[in-house]
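Subject: two folds for Thursday's group meeting

Dear M.,

Sorry for the delay on this. The cluster queue was jammed most of the week, so I only got both jobs back this morning. I'm pasting them in the order they finished. Each block is the input sequence followed by the predicted structure tokens. Could you check whether the formatting survives your parser before we put anything on slides? The first protein is the one we discussed after the seminar.
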Amino acid sequence: MQRTRLEFSVASASSRGAREYQEDDTRVWSPDGAEAADPRRPVVLAVLSDGMGGHVSGEVASKLVCDQSLQHFLTMSGEPEEKIKTVLDASNESIERAVRSNSKLSGMGCTLVVAYLNSEGVIWASVGDSSLLLFRGGQLYRLNQNHSLGALLDKQAAAGLITYEEAHNSPNRHSLRSALIGGPIAISDITLTPQSVLPGDWVIVASDGLETLTGDEIAATVGKASAATPGDLTRGLLDQVDRKAVSNQDNTSVIAVKVHTAKADVPRGDRHHYVSIATGTPSNRNRDSEAIPSVIHRTLIGQNRTKKLLRRPRSARRSWTAKLAVLFVVFMLASALFFAFFFEMLASRFGPNGDGTEHAPLVKPRTKSR
């Protein structure tokens, strides 16, 4: 089965929120370079990190792992899946080296999402609570795991172990169960089986500052941006967060990727350029002939409830109602005629006495008078 070739347009934006400093960082890369005249790309690498550990340490950590992740993809040989599999360890080691060389950075850490998109779909590696989202058909899905304590509390509330109020109001809700800190990584999400993407989909990478918006609010904003550019969408999401005017609003960073049908097929000689970003390393698999499912095996977190359900026009619905009424009347008339004919036939065949003959009515014999 021939797979539809895809292309991607992408943009990123950040807001400091109510904080005095910016601890988020992002990187976006594609083989054609960020400054190419055509904004569409056959491959996109999206990297986002949310730092922690204070002004200096958090900023250093997020910048360090974003740079390391990008370098890892550009310099390591092999398939993208191999790079995704090892990017968290490589980035974590860069934090360990930085802390070892400068004790003032002790305690720093960060989240990390690395998402690689091509015509096969999206694969990723992530740790922490930064999100990888997919918007399709009015519904918003979270693709990657959430390693915050809040996600665990929500599961406990759903299981009835605690109340939803306790889960929502916990002071430790935003604490992380796993992050890159230079030591062992407690929990990670490495997904090497591509989640398919379709033309018209949006893939969004965001720091937890975006969680000021509910899933439905995010879905509504993305739904309104069906004809917008990725730059329009990132600005729209950040504006929506700002309008909430939350005290102590966290930094918010967003990478938005829009999926398009490719304008032309990729030349056979350039296939490796589209499926592998290791210089001089061609793909050794015939991915063009593979079929990928369009099912989303992840968590639904929001819906664009402003989107009208697809229904028949009222005139069409009235037409069908009228047709059904006419059919019902015709059926009833036909049934009445059938039964009238049936009983008339029985009467003519068997007669009043039930044997086809008629007899004179019985007369009571008269008694002779004496």
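Second protein, same layout:
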Amino acid sequence: MLIWVFAIPLFIAVAQIAMWMAAALWAVRWVRGELSDESSAVEIPEPGPAGDAFALIGAPIIAFYGVSFLSAMLSRDQVESLWDLREVFLFAAPLVTYAAFRHPRLRRWGIYSFAAGIFVAVVWGYIQVALATGDGFRPSGPLSHYMTYAGVLMLAVPLLLAVRYGWRTVTMQILAALALAMVGLTMTRSAWLGCSAALLVFLASRLVAGTAGSERTRRPRLAVYGVTIVVGFIVIALLLLAFAGHEAIVERGASIFDPENATNVDRLAMAATGLRLIATYPVLGIGPGLMAEVYPAWAVEWAVRQDNPHLHNNVLQIAAERGMLGLTMWLWMVAAFCVGAWRVLRYSGSHGEGGPEARAALAALAGFLVMGMFEYNFSDSEVLMALLFILTLPIAASAGLANKNGG
């Protein structure tokens, strides 16, 4: 389990193999228990404040991929569409997280292992920046693309900030600041916006009070909190200025609002093309994985590029490829994870058991969705696996709370 979460931000192949092995072992154990009627084989926890985990998140996942399979079978290229659906195997991540990290101590070790992987990835990126020659270099760390790298680091930041275990708190905050600065150095504007959304949600969630009678009532120390935020942003700013320079950061940031920027114009063209496809194939779309094949024939005449592999937008991409029915199931799935995390946060509060993980999950989901307005990050295996791990942590904590209260 720990090898899996450590490898997520580093080596996706290793992470997938470790995850599938863990899922297979759990399945074998479950089958053996069912066949032998041994009560000690696999523990099925009582539903906690998040509710029945399998009904909450299992149903929308099955529904989404059921619609996706139907879309693939009715597409113009069934083989290509079915191959694109291999992403479904990444959804073993919620099962493994739920099975492995219900106990607080094991959950802490899972977070520490993930943080260790992030530390290696961040150091890797800074070494790349230090050794780079010439302008325009964008670090990708151990991953294949700088956007994927930025997306994984963005998701990790709220989880790192959620750690509240003695001296490890400061260590994780320093690592979070280094990760944020590295996101800045990738020059990935969508990740910048995603980080902003994630931090906003994370800070706001600190004010949520729990309803559990045993919750430790602690008011946020706003002065200390404010000083920490200011110091963190100063450190991040200094790192950005030292490695990238003032001009590069300002120019890249200003380009977000430039209507004549070629990238911005092409993103609008992708959106217009996507809406064309949705209007023509509204129910089940053109089929998963076929955007690159059909885009040249459907691109609007003012598009900068005529060969885009995807629409750089999660909602438009899923609606165009899997139809409005597929988009509805996807939104249901996203909402289910959000509801699960919110229920745990509302029960435990920002400091109770499972509360910090719930804050991290809600913040990571907000960052993912905002970044997904400008990138098709749902298709990035590393980003999706990291997201599913983080989103399932509060649901695993919920099961632990049920067992604890029941005992």
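Two things I noticed about the second structure. Residues 314-348 form the longest helix (35 residues). The mean pLDDT is 86.

Cheers,
T.
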